[in-house]
Amino acid sequence: MPSSPAPSTALSALFFRLLLLVVVSPALSKTVTYNWNITWVRANPDGLFERDVIGVNGAWPCPQIEVEKGDRVVVNMYNGLGNQPTSLHFHGLFQNGTNVMDGPTAVTQCPVPPGMSLTYNFTIDQPGTYWYHSHHKGQYPDGLRGPLLVHDSASPIKDMYSEELVLTLSDWYHQQVPTLLKKFISYTNPTGAEPVPQAALFNDSQNTTLAVQPGKTYLVRIINMAAFASQYVWFEDHSMKVVEVDGVYTEPYETNMIYLTTAQRYSVLITMKNETTSNYAFMGSMDEELFDTVPSSLNPNVTGWLVYDASAPKPAAKDVSEFAPLDDFLLTPIDGEKLFPEADHVVTLDVMMDNLGDGANYAFLNDITYVRPKVPTLYTTLSTGEAATNPAIYGVNTHAIILNHLEVVEIVLNNQDKGKHPFHLHGHNFQVVHRSAVDAGLYDASDPSNPTMPAVPMRRDVIQAPPNGNVVVRFRADNPGIWLYHCHLEWHLASGLAAIMVEAPLQLQANTTIPDDHKAACDAQGMPYAGNAAGNTVDLLDLQGANVSPPPLPAGFTARGIVALVFSCISAFLGTAVVVWYGMREVPKDTAAAAAAAARRE
Ligand SMILES: *[C@@H]1O[C@H](CO)[C@@H](O)[C@H](O)[C@H]1NC(C)=O
Ligand SMILES: *[C@@H]1O[C@H](CO)[C@@H](O)[C@H](O)[C@H]1NC(C)=O
Ligand SMILES: *[C@@H]1O[C@H](CO)[C@@H](O)[C@H](O)[C@H]1NC(C)=O
Ligand SMILES: *[C@@H]1O[C@H](CO)[C@@H](O)[C@H](O)[C@H]1NC(C)=O
Ligand SMILES: *[C@@H]1O[C@H](CO)[C@@H](O)[C@H](O)[C@H]1NC(C)=O
Ligand SMILES: *[C@@H]1O[C@H](CO)[C@@H](O)[C@H](O)[C@H]1NC(C)=O
Ligand SMILES: *[C@@H]1O[C@H](CO)[C@@H](O)[C@H](O)[C@H]1NC(C)=O
Ligand SMILES: *[C@@H]1O[C@H](CO)[C@@H](O)[C@H](O)[C@H]1NC(C)=O
Ligand SMILES: [Cu+2]
């Protein structure tokens, strides 16, 4: 090729601009590395009780993960707890191509035992507000959780505010999760009354103050990191404009109050007043309808203040007469993603609570209560070739549902329980295409009175199913992986309210390998990482030895009979205090009366 003449000034200017573009381009992503030693630390966030909490590098609250869209995140995690295994899950991230980094134990990895390390390594191509938390046996309410923020230079909302703030919400327990779980899943708690928290927190604390500047508009990223409690949130005399829901930008929607179930997030714009003379309370209030009994000592509220003038008083919060939060169904994603056409695959799941033969109360989807398999489900997929498309090899109690690559999936969730259940799907967000009123019963797709589905449905990754009602979501199976679908109330996940989406298993096999440190975590505990749910690598259809739920109640005994029997024993041995503590209100009247009569006879 002949050598070209010296470039013209115009050309060199163009070259320079291209160079500049490359330099400032958001495509130039970086790796953000965190070295985390997970250890116990002491804390007293509600001012009522000091206790051990799980922190990072000797501190609690845990640090914030903060990156730009496109960045790679590396978390080198060392389990310094000494007495418990752990894991990390990055809530809401699709982990597209990195299913192995998703984090739920028994699903995509073995628990990391004390004294061992594991590296999480993945890129993030989604903007917005997320969080991370332990995903091992209900552990995160003991403290291992924090915000994960993904900034985005191309954000459609970036010109609408001048500063960002983060506000986390939580419930708080004085006892540790293993103790609470032992009491919750027990024949002494046959009604399945969930542990009730002792306090509500803002930013893992209370009485938080936010110094604000008059006239300025802030983006407040609100994250509910609770174990159990939803919260109503409002800022006195300031309205909010919702602009993001669970990582999805929305058309601004003005409201005075929002409701966040555990694991949900909202970003809201708040414009400050021009006057600087007074300060204003902002409030969180736990949804007490979730609690079977409300102890008289419980303050469900937490207060913070927008501080315009540090020398002015912080006024007490005013009571609101009713909770009237925004209906999230009304939000519209800015990207305009249209309603998926008719689903290729409808998955209908019915939520129920019932007692099993051990007398404890369990949660069921279609009569199956989730039990952790011996082999993490991802490892079963990766080690079983063509058989990976056969749900039987995953074992009955993992409740594996096979999804075909790229099909449109509809999940119809019929909540036949009187409680509220916020359901979360890993690896995706979903279009919320129908949500019934409370007590509407089962979803009937052919009911002519169903409202027309929204043309551009709201999308998020956690949606609450109404009591005795239903919710219908759709998504495209465009992310091969083993994705947990579960109620995000930690107590219900522990009592089995989960199923596993085995999405495009053959495509997943084609490009996944198990990192050595993940295998080492299994090896250290003698846990297999190949074979069916029982660890059988020879006969994949032989599930002998697989983990299964307790047997049903003995023949001739009804659930109510067992409940009455157990209640009579408790009343006889321990007195009525225990009964009240575990939620007398849950027991049907005739059962309670029978139990009382039995107790009197003894
Ligand atoms: C983690 O922290 C614990 C407690 O401070 C300390 O004993 C241990 O050496 C630390 N380990 C690592 C790998 O940093
Ligand atoms: C917050 O303030 C209230 C009311 O003064 C007080 O009862 C509570 O203990 C405070 N919380 C903390 C964590 O200091
Ligand atoms: C993270 O993964 C990338 C891509 O596979 C790899 O190049 C890099 O070395 C990994 N980093 C660490 C710390 O493991
Ligand atoms: C909450 O904590 C974050 C991170 O430490 C901080 O940026 C933010 O201002 C705090 N928010 C409130 C309301 O205190
Ligand atoms: C505050 O002052 C600015 C500039 O004078 C004005 O545009 C804005 O409407 C005022 N805001 C409020 C809430 O009154
Ligand atoms: C909590 O806030 C609600 C709503 O304002 C109010 O009705 C209730 O009385 C408050 N409870 C306590 C214990 O302050
Ligand atoms: C995952 O990546 C594939 C290939 O780039 C893409 O087609 C798909 O939409 C992605 N799925 C999700 C949930 O991000
Ligand atoms: C993963 O495997 C599938 C099926 O073989 C292939 O089509 C796809 O391109 C692969 N994706 C990546 C990111 O390598
Ligand atoms: Cu639930």
From TrEMBL:
CDD domains for this protein: CuRO_1_Fet3p, CuRO_2_Fet3p_like, CuRO_3_Fet3p
Alphabetized InterPro entries for the sequence: Cu-oxidase-like_N, Cu-oxidase_2nd, Cu-oxidase_C, Cu-oxidase_fam, Cu_oxidase_CS, Cu_oxidase_Cu_BS, Cupredoxin, CuRO_2_Fet3-like
Signal peptide extent: 1-29
Gene Ontology molecular function terms on file: copper ion binding; ferroxidase activity
Membrane topology note: Single-pass type I membrane protein
Chain ranges passing through the membrane: 561-582
Record Pfam families: Cu-oxidase, Cu-oxidase_2, Cu-oxidase_3
Alphabetized UniProt keyword annotations: Cell membrane, Copper, Glycoprotein, Ion transport, Iron, Iron transport, Membrane, Metal-binding, Oxidoreductase, Repeat, Signal, Transmembrane, Transmembrane helix, Transport
Subcellular localization, as worded in the UniProt entry: Cell membrane
PROSITE patterns documented for this protein: MULTICOPPER_OXIDASE1, MULTICOPPER_OXIDASE2
PANTHER family: IRON TRANSPORT MULTICOPPER OXIDASE FET3, MULTI-COPPER OXIDASE
The protein, known as: Multicopper oxidase
Species name: Sphaerosporella brunnea
